[in-house]
Design a protein that fits this description.
The protein is α/β, with parallel strands linked by helices and about 220 residues long. It folds into 2 domains: about 5-15 and about 85-220, HAD superfamily/HAD-like (Rossmann fold, 3-Layer(aba) Sandwich), CATH 3.40.50; about 15-85. It is built from 10 helices and 6 strands, in the order βαααααβαβαβαβαβα. Strands 3-2-1-4-5-6 form a 6-stranded parallel sheet. Helix 6 (about 115-125) links the parallel strand 2 (about 105-110) and strand 3 (about 135). The longest helix has 19 residues, at about 65-85.
Length: about 220
């Protein structure tokens, strides 16, 4: 029986991975370097340290990661301040359904805590999440299982009774290793054969999660 739901954030709740891709491209242009979509896709699901490592490996010693991250962050914040946080379709409906049906929910995001809380405030959904697990409080980021094990712990639901909602292969692998049921709603990257083998389900939108849970309840 499914009793807990653990959300990823970027690319799953909010369309912020596309925004991040634009921001990294802008940062590269400002610094006279080419940060490609392929490079950014390699960082999906990773925390800041691992993202920096990937980009530095791709771009070499000429890449000033601190300057690039500053430009990238300013671009993202400016976009959200001007246009609002780009919320994924079906998120409000899913959150309402989970609350009405007494599911325990939390978030396991590679983003920093300050960023996550800022996004929730902008989206008006802070009240749904008392506790969240973020990349800056976990020693080993995705695809290690640590963040999902911690998420399961804070909502008091065993991993095998939790769905993990993810958009990235790294996140799916982390959830699978932690013993949760990985559900993928792809964003910038479709699952390959190896990732597909790990999935409990593959859906097209957050709205579909409601139907999945209703079918699960019919089996009880």
């Amino acid at each position: 029986m499914i009793k807990g739901i653990v959300f990823d954030m970027d690319g799953l709740m909010f369309d912020t991975e596309r925004l991040a891709k634009e921001a990294w491209t802008h940062a590269g242009t400002e610094l006279g370097l080419s940060i490609t979509q392929e490079m950014v896709i390699k960082t999906l699901g990773l925390n800041n340290d691992d993202t920096d490592r990937v980009l530095m490996e791709e771009l070499g010693e000429a890449f000033d990661i601190m300057a690039a991250r500053k430009i990238r962050t300013e671009y993202v914040v400016r976009s959200i301040e001007e246009n609002g946080i780009p919320m994924k379709s079906g998120l409000p409906e899913l959150l309402d359904y989970l609350k009405k049906n007494d599911y325990r929910i939390t978030v396991a995001t590679s983003s920093e805590h300050e960023v996550a809380r800022y996004n929730f405030r902008r989206a008006g959904i802070s009240d749904f999440f008392d506790q969240i697990v973020c990349g800056d409080i976990i020693e080993h980021g995705k695809p290690a299982p640590d963040i999902y094990l911690r998420a399961s712990e804070i909502i008091g639901i065993p991993p095998e009774e939790c769905l993990a909602l993810e958009d990235s292969p790294m996140g799916i692998l982390a959830a699978y290793r932690a013993g949760l049921k990985p559900v993928m709603i792809p964003d910038l990257k479709q699952p390959d054969e190896e990732t597909t083998k790990l999935l409990y389900a593959k859906l097209t939108s957050l709205q579909d999660v409601i139907q999945l849970l209703m079918k699960e309840n019919e089996r009880i």
